[in-house]
Amino acid sequence: MEYLIEFKEATYTYKSSFVDPVQALKQIDLRVKRGEFLAIIGPNGSGKSTLARHFNGLLTPTTGEVLIRGISTASSDPEQLKAIRRQVGMVFQNPDNQLISSIVEEDVAFGPENLGVPPKEIRRRVNHALAALNIFKYRRESISHLSEGQKQLVAIAGVLAMKPDCIVLDEPTALLDPFGRRQVLESLKKLNREEGIAVVFITHFMSEAVHFKRVAVMDQGEIKSDGPPDDIFTRTALLKAAGLDIPVSAQLAEELKGKGFPMAPGILHVEELVNSLCQLKSKI
Amino acid sequence: MELTKNLTLGIYFPGDTTLHCLDPRTKIAGTTGLITLLLFTNNYTAYTFFAAFALALILAAKIPLGFALRGLRPMLPFLAMMWLFQIFFQKPPGSEIIFSWWKLTATDGGLHMGTLMSIRVLLLFLLTTILTLTTSTVELTDGTEALLRPLQRLKVPAQELALTMVIALRFVPTLAEEAEKIIKAQTARGVDFGRGNFIQKIAQLFPVLLPLFINAFRRADEMITAMESRCYTGGTGRTKMKVLRMSKNDYYSWAVLLLFALMQIILIVKIAPPF
What we know:
The structure holds two protein chains of two kinds. Chain A is of the alpha/beta class.
């Protein structure tokens, strides 16, 4: 089975002449398959953003290697680097600092324009990307008239128009309001489901990670644990050690279990908690 | 201080008239041509036709006349001053004194020169206003890029210049918003903007400009990373989503412009200036 993205014992050390070298990534082994829906969570300073920058060769590992469909990101061939960046699209935290044009559709066209795609095909891709993210009606709108959440959707559309196999998002919801967060998350779910695009979502919001099919926990430059969310979030000790919050529903279920209530295992979402509590009520 | 509200850069008046839909190259080159013509015009008859032509353009673009003329208002005090200077200090040979007051004498030649010059400046301003009202900033940059492209052989980086302009325009509202935020934050900390003498006022700018600059550099840094991630590697090998294409209407416009220019040239040559 060929992996889409493969980190092989990758380490990364920040070197500076002013301070001691800092090892931000330690022996990272991570594999992402086609169509995966993965969240990477970790507290501030855990190396999440450094990890993100390794996905498309913005940074290359000090030792070890990162392969995108078998091609090393350390490749010095600019065409190969271009191919890697087309396959692995990247969305950053601040939408204001990654949008190039003041008009929505012009910005979405920026990626395919750089790839030298013929004009008619660009138009087709731009329309498709805007429709897929439900922002087609804003295509002639000025970026400055959009909400932060909508701006982030434009940034995702700009990546989508390059026809990537995978989208990596580095804390894309950190600056958004709850509504914007939900919009971004729902759109990513849809892209993953309908277009089969792998999503790597880096965040420190536990409540968001719950929505993913696979969750990796990062702390102090290492991946501490990696698996399905109901497995990860019920390991409260591990999360607490990493300084992360446990989802409220999971924590409540855990504490009730501690008090001797027969709660269902692996509770993450509010609905699951409600269901379990209602069953409890009917038993009484 | 509401900076974002007073932004007049790229005052685009949306519409779908023929004038709006013309190729930006036609509009930019046409306006440049008309302005050149304007500089040679020197009699009232020619100016009357010119004003009628500008009026026709405004009506064709379905822009409310008041809206188009409002842009001229800040010019008026300067124009009035220029007009007075011309009346009193221009004395073309053969002109007669209309009246004199104290040490100043006004001549009819000066009056004509002042009036003609005022009309010229007003029309010049009006023509550029019509261009920016009917052409979005994106079209303007696209048009400029296309017009500059032949110069690329002379090592003029037309594509890069256009992209720089696109990004600059994109950041105007963002930075204005940020400046407003900083001003509010500094006011909350006790900086009293708009008080004090000239030097104190300049000193007040520093707590606004410094954070604004630092943030702008940070933004630029993130922008470069984002552009790199979106496969930008310079101007070569890029395509454009929008390909500029001259339509039938563009050719008609060129015909109209040429006819008008011809008529104006005849008027300029045949009618002597009024001084």
